[in-house]
Amino acid sequence: MTIATEPAEPLSVGQLSATTLLRFATAGSVDDGKSTLVGRLLHDSKSILTDQLEAVEHASRNRGQDTPDLALLTDGLRAEREQGITIDVAYRYFATARRRFILADTPGHVQYTRNMVTGASTAELTVILVDARNGVVEQTRRHAAIAALLRVPHVVLAVNKMDLVAYAEPVFAAIAEEFTAYAASLGIPEITAIPISALAGDNVVEPSAHMDWYGGATVLEHLETVPAGHDMTACHARFPVQYVIRPQTAEHPDYRGYAGQIAAGAFRVGERVTVLPSGRTSTIAGIDLLGESVDIAWSPQSVTIRLADDIDVSRGDLIAPGDDAPALVQDVEATVCHVADEPLAVGHRVLLKHTTRTVKAIVRDIPSRLALDDLSQHPDPGQLVANDIGRVVVRTAEPLALDAYADSRRTGSFLLIDPADGTTLSAAMAGEAFAATAEHVHETPQHQDEESWDF
To answer: How far apart are CA 339 and CA 341, in angstroms?
Structure first.
């Protein structure tokens, strides 16, 4: 856990090449200036096209504003512009000389919790805004809790509107100390606090002339230098099979390859592997990447793996190292964010989609629901409604090769889907969360396991 007080150690050109990509999300309470921060970041980094800026200037004049309202660069929905709030996730792509970025500008309202979860689920960094006049508020804690649940490795606390508190260092220090203590209790590994004024541009792209007491990086400098991604070659190697390639042509009469994207880790020719859920073992005979044979491939490359033995492998199977294969499970406990308008209740029959595998499942228990106002656990809620976050236990019809979300965000996550119409019901994170694991899972009555769901 750190609060930046000194400039980040500069990285080498090799470490920060133009191909380096950082996915990050932003979150903030109402009127904290989140959309203005994003607009300022895009504007001052010269990532806005001329016609986009002209459109914003025109819209601002029509609203009686003398200066461009940079929040309009991200609040694209008519309802967002009318209300001055962010409702849906807005994705923006921009680049500097040092790094490329995918930004998810997420809403902060409690009724749009599911939208924030969607935007932050793939983020490597989350920027949480706080109004310097209000300090850490209820929604700030919600955003920190969601970042902790999603295991976002880096969190930036941007204390905004410092110009409205006379750029006072004690105000910033008090907010940073309170937030850092709270985030530590949630298990967030790294916090960087930066005092800014999004409206005036202080410490967003350029250092502030009004806060000489702050010696840390600006928001953009931090985004450019924070470690991006993980060393996926050091993770548990996982390869979900997406498609079986069998051309059966005169040129390739016996070719059998298994295509997909490596979810984590690395695979090498000659390596002994296990195919799950069957448990059959073989050796990697070849790896094809972009039409060429390679000796090694790693996440997130899309490849075709060929095995030495002619064994039954199909879509949804998982290839893993023989000495590091995940355990097969049918009773899964997870933290979920319910995203559908229809409630999720005990006894509901669902489809569970994990990587490329989809199986039938039954919701056996909902041990608790997280109260977002005070982060307390409400036991046995019976159901989860839209935007609820809670613990669920599901029983699957077939074994799953599932990792804990804490070990792998790719192979530790899954979706619960309505089997009737294919609607996504909940986004789930397997295993432990910062929320306490309930110890009172009760059995679903036997009659709920009947009617063609024979497991």
So the answer is: 7
